[in-house]
Design goal:
mainly alpha; single chain
Amino acid sequence: MSLINLGLTWFSALSFLFYGLSFYRSSHMKDEFKRYGLAKFTLLVSILQILGGIGLIAGIQIQPIFVISSAGLSILMLFGFAVRLKIKDGFWQSLPALSYFILNSYLFYVAIKSD
C-alpha cells in the first residue's frame, strides 16, 4: 500500500471510529438521526462505523478485511448521502457523506485492484 493510500486509510478509519464512538459521548448523532427520521438505526450505524474503522486498520495487514470494510463503509456512506438528498439537505451538509463515499470507494477499488 502506498504511503498516500495508507494515510487515506488511517484518516478514514479514525474518522469512523471517532464518529461511531460519539454516539456514546454526545447526543449529536442521536439528534441527527431523529432529524433524518431514522432514530431506530442510530445504534446500528454507530456499531457499523466502529467496526468499519477497526476493519480498515486491521485490513492494512489482512487484505480481505480491508476489502470488506472499505466496501461496507462505501455502502454506508452512499446510503448516508441518499438520506441527505431525501431530506433535502444542502450541498455543504451533504458533502461529508459524499466525500467519505468517494474516499472509501477509492480504497475499495485500490484494494481489489491490488489482488
